[in-house]
Amino acid sequence: MSSDQLSPSPLLSVVMPSFNEESTITEIVKRVLESPWTGELVIVDDGSTDGTRALLSEMNDDRLVVIHQPENRGKGAALRTGFETASLAYVIVQDADLEYNPEEYGNLLEPVLKGDADVVYGSRFLTDKPHRVLFYWHSVGNRFLTLLSNMMTNLNLTDMETCYKLFRAEVLDSIELTEDRFGIEPEITAKIAAGGWRVWEVGISYAGRTFEEGKKIGWRDGFRAIWVIVRHNLTTHRTKRPAPAL
After folding, report:
1. Do 4 and 32 contact (CB within 8 A), yes or no?
2. Alpha-carbon distance 157 to 126, whole Å?
3. Is the CB of residue 66 less than 8 Å from the CB of residue 40?
C-alpha cells in the first residue's frame, strides 16, 4: 500500500514550535491546514518579539490551538508543551519555516498506518527528492551527529537531526523529555531507541534556508548535541518492546 492508496483523513496532531517567524508563519500555517491529514495544529509561540504573535492572533480555524510561552525557552521546551497538548492518535513535528513540506505527511504516515512502525523519521539524505544546495559543513555536522547517535543507540538512521519525526501518541506518552533547546532531537532518538520502539525512515524534500533568512541552529547547539547523545544514551534504561497486536 503506497501513500497514494491511503485514504486521507485528519489523523495528525501537528506540533509547531515558533520563534520570530513573522516572514513564514502565515504561509506555513496555510500549508499545514491544507493537508487532508491535519486534524489539529498546535502552535507553541516561544516568546516571539517580532510580529509573529500578532499574525497568530488573526488566524481562525477550528483545528488551530495557539499557546504562548511567556519567554523564549527553546525548541525543546516548546515541543514538550506541544506534545502535552496534542490530542490525536499520531503526532508530527513541523517547523514554522518553509524548509519542510506538509504535502509529504501521507508518505510519513504510511509505515505507521500499515502497522510496521511506531516512529517515522523524514530523512533529508535518504532520498532523490529536490534539495536546496547550501552549507557543506552543516551537512557534515548533521552526518557526524547522526553517526555518533547511531553508535550509541545501535540504530542505522541517516538523519537523526531532521525536524520531521512522526510518532504514535503512546510513544510520546512513554518518554520523559528534558532538553530545552535543539538537544531535544538526540534526546528523543535516545529514548525512542531505549524504549524498543520500531523506527522507520522515509525520504523527504528539503528547502533549507540561510542564517540571513532566519536559520537559528548554530555550532554551540552542535556541541550540546554531542553531550546530549552521550548523556542520555548512558543514563536511559533500555527495554525490549514487543510489536503491538494489529
Report:
1. no
2. 9
3. no
Which is the CATH superfamily of the domain at 12-235?
Spore Coat Polysaccharide Biosynthesis Protein SpsA; Chain A (3.90.550.10)
Q: Model's pTM, two decimal places?
A: 0.86
Give tens-digit pLDDT for 117-131: 999 999 998 877 766
Give the N- to C-terminal CA distance of the chain in Å, as an integer. Answer: 16
Q: What would the grid cell of residue 236 be?
A: 536511559
3-state DSSP assignment of residue 167: strand
Identify which of 12, 13, 14, 19 has the alpha carbon closest to the alpha carbon of residue 180. 19
Pairing of strands 64-69, 38-46: parallel
Give the start-to-end residue ranges of the domains of the chain.
Answer: 12-235
pLDDT in tens, 52-104: 999 999 999 999 999 999 999 999 999 999 999 999 999 999 999 999 999 99
